[in-house]
Amino acid sequence: MRNMVSKVWIENKSLIVFITLMLIFRSAVADWNDVPTGSMKPTIVEGDRILINKLAYDLNMPFTQLSLIKLADPKVNDIIIFESKVAGKRLVKRVIGVPGDIVSMSDNKLTINQRTIPYSEIKVHDDKVILNENIAHNTHTIQLTKTSSPLRNFNAIKVPPDHYLVLGDNRNNSADSRVIGFVPRHEIIGRSSKVVLSLDYNNYFLPRTERFLHDI
């Protein structure tokens, strides 16, 4: 058995080292994440593969979420990827409130630290409205449905230490902090700002070339 293992190692040493380094890289440095739902539309659509920068906030021990060195904290407007214990799966959402912020929502309009967030309408479809939302001098696009939703309102709440309030850009169709609560800092894997590639689920999984390397 020992001779067989030695032979396999000698014959495949370069491949084994390459695979090991690749796994370490994907575990601790960068990876991509498939987005199967529309909770972040129109920013991220179903079939997008987004790049995860795993060094955005922490240097982790490979193959774990144990932080060896804290590099930064998430900021408002960051699109984060996190392993939600409450939801039981990996989620992608936008940071709206950081520790200490007081956030409320009335008829889908946010107020953060007593400042009402400005909105401007872009377009109206039969069943949805597309708006620009400007938070902390960053403008991004959100989507609302015209039908009433219980998610469109919540009372003022203060974000506790080491937690974050996150929302999906598809505001009426997102299981975010309004459903799963605040996101603990230790659940956050990394940050995304780019689509690597995209496959159209409704068109035989053909690539959407216009979304390759698309900034989000």
Written account of the structure:
It is built from 2 helices and 19 strands. A hairpin with a 4-residue loop joins strand 5 and strand 6. The strands form 5 sheets. Strands 1, 2, 17, 18 and 19 form a 5-stranded antiparallel beta sheet that branches. The protein is globular, with a radius of gyration of 20 Å. By secondary structure, the protein is mainly beta. Helix content is 14%, strand content 44%.
Task: Compile the SSE list and pairings.
Blueprint: H1 2-28, E1 30-34, E2 48-53, E3 58-60, E4 67-70, E5 79-84, E6 89-97, E7 102-106, E8 109-112, E9 115-116, E10 119-124, E11 128-135, E12 138-145, E13 154-158, E14 163-167, H2 177-180, E15 183-184, E16 188-192, E17 194-200, E18 206-207, E19 214-215
Antiparallel strand pairs: 1-2, 2-17, 3-4, 5-6, 5-16, 6-14, 7-8, 7-13, 8-9, 10-11, 11-12, 14-15, 17-18, 17-19
Which percent bin holds the helix content?
10-25%
How many strand units?
Answer: 19
H/E series, N to C? HEEEEEEEEEEEEEEHEEEEE
Approximately what portion of the residues adopt beta-strand conformation?
35-45%
Distance from N terminus to C terminus (CA atoms, Å) equals 51 Å
Sketch the major β-sheet. Answer: 5 strands, antiparallel
Structural class: mainly beta
Counting copies of identical and different chains, the oligomeric state is single chain
Query: Radius of gyration, rounded?
Result: 20 Å
Shape verdict: globular
Please, what is the average pLDDT?
A: 91
Low-confidence stretches: none
Helix count, DSSP H or I runs of 4 or more residues? 2
